[in-house]
Design brief:
Helix content: 25-40%
Radius of gyration: 14 Å
Largest sheet: 2 strands, antiparallel
Mean pLDDT: 89
Order of helices and strands: HEEH
Strand content: 15-25%
Low-confidence stretches: none
Number of helices: 2
Length: 70
Amino acid sequence: ALQQVMLNLVFNARDALQGRDEPRIGVRLHADGAEAVLEISDNGVGIPPEVRARLGEPFFTTKPPGHGTG
C-alpha cells in the first residue's frame, strides 16, 4: 500500500509537468529522529487553492475519465 502511494505521488508529479521545458521531479528520503520522511517535489505550477481544499476528499480528481485517479 505504501509503495502504491509513493508511485501515485511520482506519477501525479510527472503529469503536472506535461509541457514544461525543463521538468524536474525530486525524491528525498531521510531520517528525522525515529521517523522516516519522504519528500516528493516537482517544478510544476502548483495546486490552485480551490483544489488544495479538496485534496483529502475520497475519489476527488481533476483528471478526465480514463487518465488516472488524481
